[in-house]
Amino acid sequence: MQIELRDHTSLLRAGMAPIAAVFATLVICSALILWADVPVLEAYALLFKGAFGSSFALKETFTRSIPLMLTGLAVAVAFRSKFYNIGAEGQLYAGALASVYFGTGLIDLPVFIMVPFLLLVGALAGGALLLVPVLLKTKLKVDEVVTTLLLNFVMLLMVSYLIEGPWRDPMAMGWPQTASIVDNGVLPALLTKGRLHAGLIVALLAAVLVWAVMRFTVLGYEIKAVGFNAKAAEFSGINVNKTVVYTALISGGLAGIAGVSEVAGLKGYLTLDLSPGFGYTGVAVAMLARLHPLSVVPAALFLSSIYVGADSMSRAVNIPTYIADVLVGVSVLAILVCVMLTQYKIRFRQ
Amino acid sequence: MSELIDILLTTGFWAATIRIVSPLIFGTLGELICERAGVLNLGIEGIMTVGAMSGWMWVYQGGDLWGGVLFAASMGALFGLLHATFTVHLCLSQHVTGIGITLFASSLSYFVYRMLLPSATTPPKIEPFQNYPIPLLSDIPMVGEALFNQSPLTYLALLCVPIVWYMLHRTPIGLAVRMAGENPVAVEAQGINVLAVRTGAVMVGSALMAVGGAFITMSWFDAFYFGMVNGRGWICVALVIFASWKPGKALLGALLFAGLEAMQVRAQLSSGTVIPYQFFLMLPYVMSILAMIVMARKAKYPQALLVPFRRGERV
Fold first, then answer.
1. Which secondary-structure segment (H or E) carries B150?
2. Number of domains in chain B
3. Which of A133, A134, A322, B213 has the highest local Cβ count within 10 Å?
């Protein structure tokens, strides 16, 4: 078996890669659905209906896609410069902690200042948390994958301590949760019914902004250059370490904003189950989007539809909800192969 | 402080340390073998979960304990093969493949568990490995109780350290594995198939990781819980760096961490509510990061780690 670089990658083939990956994922996971003794097409139809079939389902899918867009963007930016930030989960909680610290009564500003302020402190907290691994990488060459992963566990324990200890809401009847965000800090609802909130606008704006930065600014060019070939970038005069630090700050900041949006937009307060692994799913979102900021939006919507749809599917037929996580995991592996096939061809020798 | 010394003097502490160290030894040795061959295996967290689930499930479905260990190992090897196909043969990103395998392997374990036990609210239990006191040796005070009155899987873990060392450093196969991680072109020049060596190393390493996971459900505890591996895989990856890719040092590092974990459980009890328990639980993760910082300057990475090998391509 031999792998050969293609002379050029046609745009059509490149665009087809995510679609092929999604299709392959659905086909591979149909084996599990068959095992559960459910007709495959019926199961996927139920999943689709659960995600898009009613206005309630649609709203849920969009609501669930907000944190995935933001963590997906966080991962996409970092991976672009080959900085493997797998710590979006921890940075999300850092952002959530910051929003709770400032948003539960410490200060109270008019809503049009308070909401941006909370988003800002959340972004700063997320960026600050990622500063530890990034400095360890640039100064000491400590692998960032392991440090960012380990910090996720540290952050979860920190949240657990704070909501059981000093930050516990005394009015919560003993439940481990913080006090609620003040009214002026709450992200306004977008529709009169349902849980969809202004976080969606924040996430979409973030996607456009990140795209613009990557496309039109020097920093964006440098990020891509470092990702392509750090040595060549260094030779051409780019300060690689500085670029990686900036990348990390943007990446951590985006994940931090995801935490603020979940607390101030959806839950209202912080609990330990704020994120069912949004940070890790962000890796899948970014990969499916081929690390392109604008493609993160449909990729996040797709994966959130899988989660929302799988919930309602497993209520209708006897398939464990973990099928959604399996689909996400398989999609990461499938997109890797599909993208490779756009750039390389495999030739089997006789 | 005197409380800590009191803890150090109890046999229970040392027995617990040796027990807790077993999954770390399996995981660290497994990761070490993969990395020595030039492949960073970040699927470890998921592969340990697969081992924990499949070994336990084998016994729960009526199989015997050693059959379960073997089953877990072969499941691990299977995921290792998947990893190697992606990273070694298709030359895909080792980082992303590893994370993908972890996501896939752990969610698949939970899915299979729920499929086979749809209505279990409290996790059902199996009859786990019993401690097997080694005659005579276990009669030695303190040392005997701590070291020679353990589960057979723990003995296996401790035995694996010299075996892996011998295989890596004293046999032609081990030489080929280490060369594949340092200078794959030279291996190819010897007429040895680099891709086959790397694939084999990743499969063997992954099998060891899975046995480490199986230890958790089949010897340490007797049931399978969600989130049971709880970052132990990532700690193993840090330990490999801490051990500078040497099996003997890996044992030392693993012992240090296991001692810390055994210590924190006991310190939690004696400290009462002065220090919140979450800070004790943070220790292994924080220590892992510190260990990587300490070793960072001295770390001698295998030269071809993360570098895919394409046959016939000019370097």
1. strand B149-150
2. 1
3. B213
Q: Please check the confidence at residue A350 and state whether its pLDDT lies above 60.
A: no
User: Could you tell me the maximum CA-CA distance found in chain B, to the nearest angstrom?
Assistant: 64
For residue B239, what pLDDT is reported? 94
Residues 6+ away with beta carbon under 8 Å from B96: A79, A283, A287, A332, A336
Q: Looking at the DSSP assignment, which residues form a beta bridge with residue A347?
A: A2
User: Which H or E run includes A124?
Assistant: helix A111-140
Furthest CA-CA distance within chain A: 73
Query: How far, in whole angstroms, is CA B4 from its chain's centroid?
Result: 28
Examine residue B168 and state whether it is found in any structural domain, yes or no: yes
What CATH fold (topology level) applies to the domain A2-347?
A: ABC transporter involved in vitamin B12 uptake, BtuC (1.10.3470)
> B244 in a domain, yes or no?
yes
Task: Indicate the DSSP class of residue A168.
Answer: B
Pick the residue of B50, B111, B298 with the most A CBs within 10 A to test the interface with A by mutation.
Answer: B111
Q: Which residues in chain A are closer than 8 Å to B114, comparing Cβ atoms?
A: 320, 322
* ipTM confidence score: 0.93
What average pLDDT does range A155-171 have in this prediction? 91
Domain limits for position B115:
2-296
Q: Verify whether the Cβ–Cβ distance A330 to B118 is below 8 Å.
A: no
pLDDT confidence band for A82 (50 / 70 / 90): very high
Q: Do A145 and B311 touch (CB under 8 A)?
A: no
Token readout for A326 is 């399996």
The verdict on residue B305 lying in a domain is: no
- Which residues of chain A does B99 touch, with a Cβ-Cβ cutoff of 8 Å? 86, 280, 283, 332
Return the closest-CA partner of residue A92 out of A114, A66, A58.
Answer: A66
Residue A318 in contact with partner chain B when CB distance is under 8 A: yes
CATH code of B268's domain:
1.10.3470
Mean pLDDT of A101-105: 92
* Phi, psi (rounded to 5 degrees) for A197: -130, 175
Q: Residue A197 in 3-state DSSP? A: strand
A34 pLDDT more than 90:
yes
Of B97, B279, B289, the CB nearest to A336: B97
A141/A143 Cα distance (integer angstroms)? 6
For residue A30 the two structure tokens come to: 């149909």
Element (H, E) at B86: none
Which pLDDT value is given to residue A349?
Answer: 67
3-state secondary structure (DSSP) of residue A273: coil
Residue A69 · residue A297 · CB < 8 Å:
yes
How much is the pLDDT for A171? 82
The predicted-structure confidence for B52-78, as pLDDT tens digits, reads as follows 999 999 999 999 999 999 999 999 999
Interface test with B, best of A157, A273, A285, A321 (most B CBs within 10 A): A157
Give the separation between CA A90 and CA A95, rounded to whole angstroms: 9
Whole-angstrom distance, CA of residue A198 vs CA of residue A278: 18
Closest-CA distance, B90 to chain A, in angstroms, reads 7
- The percent of residues in chain A predicted with pLDDT above 70, rounded, is 99
Residues A197 and A63: beta-carbon distance below 8 Å: yes
